[in-house]
Amino acid sequence: MGKKKDAKKFKKNKDAKKSDLSSLREELRVGEGFDLAAVDTRSTPGFSGDKQLAAQLMTDTADELDDLQERLYANGRDGVGPSVLLIVQGMDTAGKGGIMRHVIGSVDPQGVELTAFKAPTKEELAHPFLWRIRRALPQPGYIGVFDRSQYEDVLIVRVHDLVPPSTWTRRYGQINAFEAGVVERGTAVIKVMLHISADEQKSRLQERLDRPDKHWKYNPGDVDERGYWDAYQESYQAALDRTSTADAPWYVVPADRKWYARLAVHQLLLDHLRDLDLQWPAATFDVDAEKARLAES
Amino acid sequence: MGKKKDAKKFKKNKDAKKSDLSSLREELRVGEGFDLAAVDTRSTPGFSGDKQLAAQLMTDTADELDDLQERLYANGRDGVGPSVLLIVQGMDTAGKGGIMRHVIGSVDPQGVELTAFKAPTKEELAHPFLWRIRRALPQPGYIGVFDRSQYEDVLIVRVHDLVPPSTWTRRYGQINAFEAGVVERGTAVIKVMLHISADEQKSRLQERLDRPDKHWKYNPGDVDERGYWDAYQESYQAALDRTSTADAPWYVVPADRKWYARLAVHQLLLDHLRDLDLQWPAATFDVDAEKARLAES
Question: Is B290–A223 a contact, with Cβ atoms under 8 angstroms apart?
Fold first, then answer.
């Protein structure tokens, strides 16, 4: 009997351990001496379970995420209060769209402000690079989501010499100062790099070519860009080194396994919302008096 | 044996009949001689099943909705192509937020442009009433969703004499001309009124007062507005009479049962997307040549 119980307990402990995501955030956080090239893009830091358990854990916390998002929204009703900004970067096919669809898609759309930054327009180019970013910051109560961001201005811009080195060199500090102000004004900033390998990208592009329903997602320029893979990695490493601050750290999420990347971003969002420790706003009216008025209406 | 088979067949036919939503759209459509006061707000036009079956049917067509939305998005990639505009109106507590959360929330957020129209700002008031509406129209490939809309300018505005009668009287025609242009430019317009009874509204407001986690949703002004219930119904009737056109008809959805309202809007969206009969865009590049280039990259 004792043995059976022990076995059960062991199994339970093992499952509990597999379901424990409490170290994920710290494991993904970019700190001093971080080396992008050393990250195994197929690894699953902070999680020892499989795809099925990952999906289960996301389902298990869906209601909590929902509740926390609604509290955030409720607290922003008067135009003051905290907000959250999730920035998602990554090479082509890294899975940014999947994060938007499956992680952000699980949140009430009324509380989300999603911005996909494309190549800057003429109007945007006529302004400082942070101008369009500033306009897209989330209002109090909202979860802002950036699909690409100000970081393109030190990534693609650096790789392709779109501005002189003296300009992009200055931008790291400008980004840090900008983000410090954003955090100061009450926005929790979560910066995520979805990190895939060059081989994984190749197979994802291959799939887009193999499936006629994916042709529209394929752009011949994507193959050209593969020629700059190392320069991109170098630019990412520089951005991570220079802009992973205490207030607005980077999280590098290994993303060859899509299910892990989704779990990780879901968990990062959940962790940051939990940190806000939001209560429901107190009534700004006399509840009993309103009940009486309503009864008579 | 024959009897048992017949019974099974009967059950199957009955279930199939219950699952048949093909008449829903026509039954909800506002045509000649429509009488809002005659609508039973607890009825479920075009659907004879229950809450559970309604949820099942929404789940059954979730993948199709997803697929159709992605085709719409794919077709808009070059800045041309059709779009969809869903306008949702209704009295306070009619369930607009629930539609946004549960119906629109099931669609990929990357393909949705949601706008909640509040009381107009000073800037908006300085422009013609359609100015802010025009700016929020969906781009090609997108599903635009309006939580309230241009119709507030012939509803609350009319009820509270916010502009002279000669002004709001003119607006019905202006809205029709505007919407005709929107449809002409390739946008399918779906106008939904969520229709609840005054008693149902009372019980929903009561719930907001009873639950501290709902207090933030309660506004004492909502009780004052109940004093204008009949004037609102009259204004809705006038709007339905004058703006349910062949190109942009109104659908009045009985909404005392939230599950039915959600099924109905889901189905209306699905029906209109099906009508577009969208194919995946053909490749604009030489697929085989790209496969060769990719292989070498």
Answer: yes
Q: What is the pLDDT of residue B3?
A: 61
Which residue segment(s) compose the domain that A65 sits in?
29-278
Number of neighbouring beta carbons within 10 Å of residue A11: 10
Q: Determine, for residues A209 and B108 on separate chains, whether the beta-carbon distance falls below 8 Å.
A: no
Q: Which amino acid is at A197?
A: S
Non-local CB neighbours of A106 within 8 Å, separated by 6+ positions = A58, A62, A65, A266
Residue B295 lies in a domain: no
Chain A residue numbers with beta carbons less than 8 Å from the beta carbon of B91 are none
The neighbouring-strand residues paired with B114 are: B145
Lookup result for tokens 């699905």: B270
Give A294: exposed, middle or buried? Use CB within 10 Å, 0-12, 13-18, 19+.
buried
The H or E element that residue A256 is part of is none
- How many domains, chain A? 1
C-alpha A77/C-alpha A86 separation (Å) is 20
Residue A260 CA to residue B85 CA, distance in Å, equals 35
Does any domain span residue A147?
A: yes
pLDDT in tens, A33-80: 999 999 999 999 999 999 999 999 999 999 999 999 999 999 999 999
**Is B201 domain-assigned?**
yes
**What is the C-alpha separation between A8 and A26, in angstroms, rounded?**
30
Mean pLDDT value of segment A242-260: 98
Segment A197-229, tens digit of pLDDT: 999 999 999 999 999 999 999 999 999 999 999
Residue B10: C-alpha distances to residues B16, B52, B56, B204, B250 (Å): 10, 20, 21, 39, 36
Q: A97-134: per-residue pLDDT in tens?
A: 999 999 999 999 999 999 999 999 999 999 999 999 99
Q: Which residue has the tokens 């922003």?
A: A76
Q: Nearest CA to A266 among A143, A149, A106, A43?
A: A106
> For residue B122, what are its two tokens?
């000073």
The answer to whether B294 contacts A209, with C-beta atoms less than 8 Å apart, is yes
* Domain CATH for A83: 3.40.50.300
The shortest C-alpha distance from B281 to chain A (Å) reads 6
Q: Which residues contact A205 (CB under 8 A, 6 or more apart)?
A: A92, A93, A218, A222, A223, B294
What does the alpha-carbon distance between residue A24 and residue A21 come to, in Å, rounded to a whole number? 5
Residue A292 domain flag: no
Based on DSSP, count helices (H) and strands (E) in chain B, helices before strands: 14, 5
**Bridging pattern class, strands A143-147 and A112-116:** parallel
Cross-chain Cβ contact B227/A116 below 8 Å: no
Residue A211 φ then ψ, to 5°: -110, 115
Residue B57: count other Cβ atoms within 10 Å of its Cβ.
Answer: 19
Q: How far are the Cα atoms of B8, B11, B63 from residue B4, in angstroms, in the given order? A: 6, 10, 35
pLDDT of B5 above 80? no
